[in-house]
Amino acid sequence: MIICRSYYNGHPHSVVGGMIGYPKRFTLHGLWPANSTGYSLKCAPPPEGTSVWTTDGQLRTALQKCWYSLIRGRPNYILWKHEWKDYGYCSSHTIKDTDYFWAAVRKHGRNTKIAGDAIVNELSDAEISPSNDKVNKKSAITSALSEILDFNNQVDA
């Protein structure tokens, strides 16, 4: 599972650009089933049909809180459709689409509840914060996160 922190960086065309008051919180970036070597599964695209979030209002509400598009003007369901098509569907022989999306909601909730504030505080203590002027070293971020996370972390920008 990948989570990312969303910040408004001031650029009008960037992700979340121009969104006044956009939440500075963790959003789910992806839940990607992997093979035994750790690489994401790739498979043929799913057949077109009714998407689970159009028929399950509770799931749709939960997904909107934790798995939202960071691209201004792009509806959340476009992201969900992409994630299911490119990653989730590959595991559909063992897990239903509803279970895949609910698993993402649960994992996001557990990880951000446990570590969300601690991550922000740890990065702040290490003088690491979003900036258009200062470049934060990947090694510094990884080091700060390894102090509080009991799982491997990967930093990408």
Provide structural commentary:
- The protein contains 5 helices and 2 strands; from the N terminus they run ββααααα.
- It has 157 residues and is mainly alpha-helical.
- The protein has a single domain, classed as Ribonuclease T2-like (Ribonuclease Rh, Chain A).
- Helix 2 runs parallel beside helix 4.
- The longest helix is centred in the C-terminal third of the chain and has 29 residues, at 97-125.
Topology (elements, then pairings):
Elements: E1 2-5, E2 26-30, H1 52-55, H2 57-66, H3 76-86, H4 97-125, H5 138-146
Antiparallel strand pairs: 1-2
Helix pairs in contact: 2-4
- Write the H/E string, N to C: EEHHHHH
The percentage of residues in β strands lies in 5-15%
Instruction: Give, in spatial order, the strands making up the sheet with the most strands.
Output: 1-2
Uncertain spans: 16-22
Span between N and C termini? Answer: 16 Å
For the largest beta-sheet, the strand count, sense and barrel status come to:
2 strands, antiparallel
Structural class: mainly alpha
CATH homologous superfamily designation:
Ribonuclease T2-like
Question: How many individual domains?
Answer: 1
CATH topology category name: Ribonuclease Rh, Chain A
